Each structure stands twice: as C-alpha cells, then as structure tokens.
Amino acid sequence: MKQLLLNGFAILILSIISLNSFAQDVDLLDLVEDKTPKKEIVKNAFKSIRVINGHSMEFLSPGTMDFRILHRFGPLNQGTKNFFGLDQASMRLGFDFGILQNLQIGVGRSTFKKELDGYIKYAPIRQATGAHAFPATIAFVAGMTMNTLDFADPTVTNYFSSRLAYYFQTIIGRKFSEGLTLQLSPTMVHNNLVPLSTQPNDVYSLGLGGRLKMSKRMAFTWDYYYLINGIEDDVNYNPLSIGVDIETGGHVFQLHVSNAVGMNERAFITETTSSWENFDIRMGFNLSRIFQIKKHKK
Amino acid sequence: MKKTLFLFALIAFVSNVHSQEKYFTKAGKLGFDATVPKSPENIDAINKAALCVLDTKTGDIQFSCLMKGFEFERALMMEHFNENYAESDKYPKTVFKGVVTNNTSINYSKDGTYSAKVKGQMTMHGETKEVETEGKIISKSGKIQVLANFNLVFADYKIVIPQLVADKLAKTAKISVDCLLEPLKK
After folding, report:
1. How far apart are CA B57 and CA B179, in angstroms?
2. CB-hemisphere CA count at 13 Å for B23?
3. How far apart are CA B124 and CA B144, in angstroms?
4. Residues of chain B contacting residue A61, judged by C-beta atoms under 8 Å apart
5. Is A185 on the interface with B (CB under 8 A)?
6. How many interchain CB pairs under 8 A, A with B?
7. Region B21-183: CATH code
8. Is B2–A64 a contact, with Cβ atoms under 8 angstroms apart?
C-alpha cells in the first residue's frame, strides 16, 4: 500500500514537470525583453504646425516640406451681396521646412501689404515620456516680416528699415491626452515703423491655443491672442480664431472663422481691425500638404 | 523501488531545466506592405528591432515588436500609421505566441533548411486572432534563421481603412518575417 502511494506520488510529480515544459502560456519574450523605459517624444499634439494663425508646438519631421495655402475671405456680415465674404480673398503662400526633429524654418508671402515673412523655430525641450520625461514642449520662434508695398509718401525720405518688423515668441505647450492639447505663447512684435505716434513699436501679447480632438481625423481648434498693450478702442482688437482641422491623408484642411485678416504674426497680432461684435468676422482656410524631400533610408 | 522512482523524477526535473535550447534575437526584421496594386504610392515599412524567441525543445516560438519601430520612407506615413491606424500610444506592442507544430521533424542541431508550420495567437491593436502560416527554419553553424510570409487582414484587428484612402491603402497587409536567432545563454 505504502509502495503504491509512493509510486502514485512520483507519477504525479513527473506529470507536473512534463506539463510545465509543454505549457502554452510560457513567456519566452520575458527572458529577453528590455524593461528599462526609453525616452519617447510626444508627437501629434496638433495636426499641423500652426494652431490656426499662430505657431503650434508641433514640428515638421526632418526632411519634409509643408506647402501651405492660406485664404481669408471677406466679412461674413455683408451677407449675400458679397456671398458671405467669399467674393474677396486675401491669401498667403508658405513653405516650411523640417530641418531637425526640433528645428524648423519657413518663408511665406501674403497678399495683404504684399508682405514677405520668414521665421526660425527651435525647441530646446520637448514633451516626452519614459526616461528623461518632461511634461511640456518649450519652443522659441524668431521671425521677420517685410512690407513690399510702395511707400505711402514718396516725397519724404523713406528708409528700407521702415518696411521691417520682427517677432519673438515662446511656446509652452502640452498634449494632456490624445484628445486635448493646450499651449501658451507669449509673443513680442516689434514694428520699426508705426502709422501713428500714439501706437507703440513694441506690442506684447499672450497667445492661448488649443485642440480638442473629435475623431481620429477631425479636431476642434482655437487660437486667441490677448494684447497686453497696443490696443486702441475702435481701431484694433484681440484676434480670435475658431476652427476645425480635417485630415484627409495627404492634406490637412483647417477651416475657421476669425476676426483677423493677417496671416503672419505682425499682421494678425497688431493689425486686426475688425471685431467679433456685429459678426465682423470672416471665413478662412489653411491647406497644408506635406512633401517628403529627403526620403528616409530603410 | 522508492529510490529508483525518486532518481527518475530528479533526472526528469534536471533535464527539463538544462536541456532546453532557447534561441533569440532583438534585431528581427518584420516587413509590412499594404500597397494597393498599381498604386504609385508604396505603403511599406520595416521594423528592424523585433524580438523573437524560439524554444527548440518544445517548438514554442514568440515574437513581439513595438509599432513605433516601423520605419516608413515618408515621415507623414509613419505618423498616420501610428496615430490613425495602429494607435500606437494605446496599443504599443504587437505580440505573437505560437508553436512550431512540426517541431519533431526539425533537427536543429544539423545544418539545413526545414519547412516549418507555425500556429498561434497574434495580439495587435487590442485584438487577438489565430494565425497559421508556413515558413522556413534554417539551421546554420549554431544559428537559426526563421523566415515566413503571411497576410494580415486589417478588419480582423478592428483597424478601419476609410473610404477616402481605399484606393491607396490595401485591406490586407503582407507581412514578412526574417529573424536570425542566436543561442540564449542563461
């Protein structure tokens, strides 16, 4: 009897051992997996490099070019006579280039004041997870604009420098979740020449931009700049744009309504002359198409 | 009798631990191709950092890869792949756990090319599906190469291809596996 029990016990042990070696849920990968967390930069905080008018915390991938066509139509409140503003359009063509993961440059030309603009954008710190995680992206933008219209008064001595304006911006942005991104962008615009002596040359403002993703390919966006100085009653206003980003695969469409006409920092921050009151706003769109200039080696 | 049985059990236990021959790589190549025939745009990518472990004794074979490890020729494609299709932030990894069903007919210690049938479960995009394919196992001077090709239907893994890109992006992807495994020393 004792012998039988022992035999049975031995067989039991054997069967447990053999079962173990044939078990299906063995995790072989566990033996080789690298468990240390890796730094991963948070991407796709915005669909595009612009929230609507202002720069976003997003960067172009190195080796890509973003060709941007921007339109701002006429005032919406003129009604059917002007086909809700669609009869008139102001536009900007832009070319933006991704140089490094955190370095981007761009140039553009607007019909408004026949203005050329260019900028350089660099992020010393980007939002990341894993090792060396950081909660936000901090980026700096420095840009310049040049008005190429004929001088208003050719009878006086005009200086080339009067055509120029500069802007400097810091972007602090965070993608809180897949759905929500918010950013703050303190901006200083310096106009070399202002039309009236009462107007300041340096205008300080604070940008508030954000995105609320509605689906994988659509997002609700807003872009507001609060002017700390340089607001004159009934002359200029804080620019507010509200829009929808639609991604179609190759293109990103940014459809919006805004009280701003200008499409560079100088123009939309210091020269927004219509207000949301009385619906003196306009429809507009940004069309972005990204081209791969330098193909990624596989 | 008591002693014999105990010894037998001990031997079985010891051999179970030490005779396992495991092979692995951390640089396995997984190819992905979802190009629509005749479409000018190639939608293909390669992941060069897949994990693969093979237990030659039991025939257990397992793969895993990070979805963000797939490299595309175009940066935008890679972005869309991760954001809109694979949803890599939500489902960072794809894992396959299976067995070589004809493991006994493969002599790993002898150099040669063997055809292998593999069957198992693949978990991708939060969905687990049965995958069965035929491939090759090449044993050469102490290393084992695993080669296979199979098709993957996006709908099986609840990856939706919108109508808008249906003429560019195929509904099935061709997956190729090429892993060179080395002995795992533990």
Report:
1. 18
2. 23
3. 26
4. 75-76, 78-79
5. no
6. 108
7. 2.40.128.110
8. no
* pLDDT tens digits, A270-282: 999 999 988 889 9
DSSP B82: I
A289 and B67 in contact (C-beta within 8 Å)? no
- Whether residue A249 and residue B164 make contact (CB cut-off 8 A), yes or no, is yes
Q: What is the pLDDT of residue A137?
A: 97
Upper half-sphere CA count for residue B182 (Cβ side, 13 Å): 7
Cβ count near B98 (within 10 Å): 21
Task: Find the helix or strand (DSSP H, E) in which A278 lies.
Answer: none
Distance between CA atoms of residues A210 and A173, nearest Å: 9
Mean pLDDT of A99-118: 95
Tokens coding B123: 């978990």
Question: Scanning the structure block, which residue is given the tokens 């950081």?
Answer: A134
**Residues of B in Cβ contact (< 8 Å) with A248:** 164
- DSSP string for residues in A5-67: HHHHHHHHHHHHHHHHHH-TT--SHHHH---S---EE---SSSSSBSSSSBPS--PPTTEEEE
pLDDT, one tens digit per residue, over B61-98 is: 999 999 999 999 998 999 999 999 999 999 999 999 99
DSSP code per residue over A53-104: SSBPS--PPTTEEEEEEEEEEEEGGGGGGGGGGTT-EEEEEEEEEEEETTEE
Give pTM, 2 decimals.
0.83
Has residue B180 got a pLDDT over 70? yes
Q: Where does the pLDDT of residue A52 fall: very low under 50, low under 70, confident under 90, or very high at 90 and above? A: very high
Residues of chain B with Cβ-Cβ distance to A17 below 8 Å are 9, 12-13, 16
Distance of alpha carbon B73 from alpha carbon A61, whole angstroms: 12
Locate the domains of chain B by residue range: 21-183
The yes/no answer on whether domain A50-292 falls in CATH 3.40.50.1820 is no
Q: What is the pLDDT of residue A28?
A: 85
Q: What is the mean pLDDT of residues A142-157?
A: 91
- Residue B71 is encoded by which pair of tokens? 């490299």
ipTM of the complex: 0.78
Q: What three-state secondary structure class fits B143?
A: strand
Q: Are A102 and A121 in contact (CB under 8 A)?
A: no
What is the C-alpha to C-alpha distance for residues A290 and A162, in angstroms, rounded to an integer?
Answer: 34
Q: How confident is the prediction for chain A on average, in pLDDT?
A: 90
